[in-house]
Amino acid sequence: MQNAVTELMRISPLADELAKLFAKAGYSLYLVGGSVRDMMLRRLSNDLDFTTDARPDQVLKIVSAWGDAVWDVGIAFGTVGVTKQGMTLEITTFRADSYDRVGRNPEVTFGDSIEGDLLRRDFTVNAMAIDLAHKTFVDPHNGLQALQDKVLDTPATPQESFADDPLRMLRAARFSAQLGFTAAPRVVDAMSSMAEEIDRITAERVQAELSKLLLADDPRPGIELLVDTRLADRVLPEVPGMRLAMDEHHQHKDVYQHSLTVLAQAIDLEKSHEPTSEPDLILRLAALLHDVGKPATREFQPGGGVSFHHHEVVGAKMARKRLRALKFSKEIVQDVSQLVFLHLRFHGYGKGEWTDSAVRRYVTDAGDLLPRLHKLVRADCTTRNRKKAAALQATYDDLERRIEAIQAQEDLDKVRPDLNGEEIMRILDLKPGPDVGKAWKHLKELRLDRGPLEHDEAVAELKKWAAENGIGG
C-alpha cells in the first residue's frame, strides 16, 4: 500500500484535476486494473487506465477542453483516450459485457457499478481500483493479497472467465513471465481442460501475447505453463514436441529443456553485450526454436548414440511454417528461420580449420544477422562439462577474431564482385539478361573464395568463365 501511496503522489495533481472534473459533472472516476497493480509494484508507466460511471459521450464532453489531445477510436467499446502533460490516459465506462462464447468479442454493455466492472476483469491482481475522489481502495476480490502472494487467480471462476475470453489463458502465461507470478491451481486446471478453446482466438492475437511473453525478463515460467497445460500444443506445438528427443550432448536433458536453457543464456548475452538495447524478439524466437527439427531427424546409432542429421535444415522450414501461421512479419519469419538454419554451421570450424573463404561465407550468409548469430551460437553451449564449455567459447572467440581481422581488411559487410553489372556487359558484349546475373554470381563466389581481385585478374577470370560456358561474343 505504501508503494501505491508513493506512486499515487507522483500522478496525484493530474489525477486529482481529472477527478474533480468528473465529480463536478456528477460522476465518479477510478484508477483501475493494471495501473493499480503496477502502482503497487512500483512500476507505474505513463499510460494510465481509468473507469467511470459516465457514458462515453459524457466522458468525451468532460475531457475535450481539458486534454492536450483527445481521440475516440475506441468509443464503441466505451473508451476515450486523452493525453495530458506527457501522460496517456484511457477512460472507459463501467462494463458489464456478455459473451456469445463463440469468438471473444463481447456484446458491449455498460454497467452501473465499480464492483460489476471489476468482476468481469481477467485476474484479481487486475481487479483493484482507487476511488480518486475519496482516495479509497476498492478490492472486492482480494487482489492485494494475491499480489503479495504472487498468485494469478480470476475474480469469477476460471471456467467462466476463460469461456468468455480464451485469450486470458495466454495472458496468464504472459503474466507468469512478466511478473513472476504463479497461476492458482484452479486456473491451471481450467487452462488444461479448456486448452482447445484457444482455437477461437485469431492468430494475430495469439502472436501478440506470445511476443509479449517472450520479451519478458524471464520467459521460462510462461512457456512452461503453456506446455504443462497443453495450450502450447494448440499455439506452438513444436516446443512441447521437443520433449520427445534427447539431446545428443546431454543425455540427462531433453531438447525442450535444452532449448529453454539456450533461451535464458541468449537473454543473458543480449543484456551483457548491449545492456541499453530493447529485448530482441528475433534472437529469442531463434533460441527457443533452434532445435525444433530434432524430433523429425532423430536416429538411434549402434552403441546407444543419437544423431540429428540436417536438423537445422528441417528446423528452419518448421520455424518458417509456424511463424507464418502465427502471422509474424515477413522480416521476423525470414530472420528467425535463417538463424535456425545457420546455428549449427560453427561446429564445422573445429579448432580453426576453416579457410578465410569459409569465414567470409559465414559472415556473408549471416549478413545483418551476424551479431545475433554470435549470441545464438554461444548460448547453444549448455554442457555441464566446464572444460568443454570453455573450449567451445574459446574456439568461438577465435572465429570472432578472424572475422574482425578479415572485415578490417576487406569490409565483408559490403562484399560485392570485383566487377559490376555494367562492366560485365561491356566486357562480354552482353545485353541485360540472365547471363549477366550468372556472371555476377560467379565473380562473387570468386570474391568469397579468394578475397579481392585486381581489376585485370577479375577481367581474365570473367573471360575464362564466359568461354567455358559459351557466353558472350
TrEMBL record:
Coiled-coil portions:
none
Q: Which PROSITE patterns match?
A: HD
- By its UniProt entry, which SMART domains does this protein fall under? HDc
SUPFAM superfamilies given in the database record: Nucleotidyltransferase, Poly A polymerase C-terminal region-like
* GO terms, biological process: tRNA processing
MF terms from GO for this chain are:
metal ion binding; nucleotide binding; nucleotidyltransferase activity; tRNA binding
Record key words, sorted? Magnesium, Metal-binding, Nucleotide-binding, Nucleotidyltransferase, Transferase, tRNA processing
Query: Which InterPro entries does the protein's record reference?
Result: Bact_CCA-adding_enz_type3_sf, HD/PDEase_dom, HD_domain, HDIG_dom, NT_sf, PolA_pol_head_dom, PolyA_RNA-bd, tRNA_adenylyltransferase
Look up the record and name the cofactor or cofactors this protein needs. Answer: Mg(2+)
Instruction: Indicate the segments forming the HD domain, all copies.
Output: 255-406
Recorded protein name is HDIG domain-containing protein
Q: Which organism is it from?
A: Amycolatopsis lurida NRRL 2430
